[in-house]
Amino acid sequence: MKQGKISETVYKRSIIKGIHFKKPEVLQGVTLPGTSSAMRISGDGNTLVTAGFSSRNIGADAESIGIISVVNEIRSRGAEPLGVIINLLYPPGYTEGELKSAIHSFDDECARQGMPILSVNGEVTDNVVRPVINLTGLGKAQEGRLLSLSDCRPGQDIVMSKHAGMEGTWLIGQMKKAALEARFSQRFIMDINRYKTEFSVAREAAAAGRHGVTAMQNVREFGVFGALWDLGTAAKTGIRVELKKINIRQETIEVCELFGLNPYQLLSEGSLLMIADDGEALVHELEKEDIPASVIGRLTPGNDRVIVNDGEERYLMPPLNDEIEKLI
C-alpha cells in the first residue's frame, strides 16, 4: 500500500468486506475512514456515537485540534459529547515536560468543549519518529435525533457553513510564519491567527438540528472536495455543486497561491455540510445567528459528482492527500 491514508478502494475491499460479525444494536457501523459510528444503548432509547481522530502531530496545537475534531464529528450526527479516550505514541527522547504540556492542552480544550477525558494511554516507542495522537470521542444522541447521511435523497440542498480551508490556512500561519511575514502585512497574519476561534461547529450544528436537517457532514481532511466525495459515497447519490458558491476568504486564496495549494482540498475544520429540503431557509436561520453559510449545490440521482465553474463542468475525483502534506 502507498504511504498515507488508506484509500477508499482498499478500505472497502480489505476492511469493510472483512468485517462480518454484526449486532442489531449497531445502527451505523464501519462505512468510511474517519467517520463516526452509532450504537443503540439498551434501556434508555439513546444512541452511543463514536468518533475518531488520528494525527502525526504535524503542527501547532495538535492536541486542541484533535479534541475539536472529534467533538465536531459527534455534533454532526446530532449527538452531544460525553468524553474522550486518548492514546499517545511518542518517540524516544520525548520529555516528561512535553507530555505534561500535551495533557494540559488536551484538558484545556476539553473544558472548552464540555467533554471530559475518560482515559489516557501512552507509550514511548522507536516505531514512530514523531508523536502520534489517536483519539476516540464518545457522544450520546437522544432517541429519534440521530442523523445519518444514508437518509439523504436526490433533490435536497447542500448548505455549507463558514469558509473553505480555514484550518489549513491557520496551520500554514503557524508552520510558515517567516514566509508569510515576508509577503503579507501584520494585520493579514493576525486575521489568519484568529481563524482557530471558528473551528467549532457547535452553533451551526445546533441551529441545523432545530431547523430539522436530514444530515450533516463535518469537513476535515481533504477539505471541501473530500467532504463532498464522502457525502456522495455515504448518501449513495450524485452531487452537483457550484464552485463559486463555496465561501472562501481572501487570506486563504492568497496563502494558497503563495504555496501552490488547492484551497478546496485543504484542511477545513470549522465548516459543516448540511443537507436540507429548503437550503435557503436554513441559510437564513444561520445568518440570524451570525454564522455565514450558503447553498452550494444539491444532491442528484445517480453517482456523478459534478463541480461547475463558470458553466464548465468537471467530475470530482477522490482526493489522495490533503494539500497540507505538500508543506510537511
UniProtKB/TrEMBL annotation:
GO terms for biological process: protein maturation. Residues 41-140 form the PurM-like N-terminal domain. Residues 153-306 form the PurM-like C-terminal domain. It holds the Pfam family AIRS. InterPro entries: HypE, PurM-like_C_dom, PurM-like_C_sf, PurM-like_N, PurM-like_N_sf. It comes from the Bacteria. Belongs to the HypE family. This is Hydrogenase maturation factor. It comes from Parasporobacterium paucivorans DSM 15970.
